[in-house]
């Protein structure tokens, strides 16, 4: 069965263009012109991936709010911001809300479809059977890629797809510094250093909600990050 993609975009011509391009790639595509319309559909059934604009008509930050609501429904649903807004503040805000990717509308359709395919590929890889001995355990940390699950002190940590790959990349090589480039390669994304830092801060906060003394992710200034054991 083909993957279902939802696009929330208030410009009819842009929505039609993206819908046509992704349909030709074999996806089932549903388009929505505003937050309420999209949210109503998502409450009935979640798609396999969502592409969001930020400004939705008079709702200048409607995409941000919709991202927040989607994350409350699912922590693993791939979410991509596709917007004309390219400021660092907007990028950081989108990633802090849990988006897996943040793209600007000057990218090519080929680039967009490649990023979507990469997100689906990551999900497929994580859902492949994993032998018990391949499950990563680092002290109180346990990563089960078969179930898309991370636990800390036996408590589930709700991570997005991108965050899960970051934790996996760090914990799979404990005590070794992983550069920002290596983390991007592991998560199959291409973002700037500010975006990487935002992802790591969000990951830390999620662990700290379970364990206020969490300090397993160490920043090595000028080099990257490492998982302490």
Automatic annotation (TrEMBL):
DNA-binding region: 133-229
SUPFAM superfamilies assigned: C-terminal effector domain of the bipartite response regulators, CheY-like
Modified residues (4-aspartylphosphate): 53
Keyword Transmembrane helix appears in the UniProt entry: no
GO cellular component: cytosol; protein-DNA complex
Pfam families from the UniProt entry: Response_reg (PF00072), Trans_reg_C (PF00486)
Keywords (A to Z) from UniProt: DNA-binding, Phosphoprotein, Transcription, Transcription regulation, Two-component regulatory system
GO biological process, one term: regulation of DNA-templated transcription
Domain OmpR/PhoB-type: start-end pairs: 133-229
Highest taxon above the source species: Bacteria
PROSITE patterns for the chain: OMPR_PHOB (PS51755), RESPONSE_REGULATORY (PS50110)
Molecular function GO terms recorded: phosphorelay response regulator activity; transcription cis-regulatory region binding
Family annotation (InterPro entries): CheY-like_superfamily, OmpR/PhoB-type_DNA-bd, Response_regulator, Sig_transdc_resp-reg_C-effctor, Sig_transdc_resp-reg_receiver, WalR-like, WH-like_DNA-bd_sf
Domain Response regulatory stretches: 4-120
NCBIfam families on file: marine_sort_RR (TIGR03787)
UniProt name for this protein: Proteobacterial dedicated sortase system response regulator
Organism listed in the record: Solemya velesiana gill symbiont
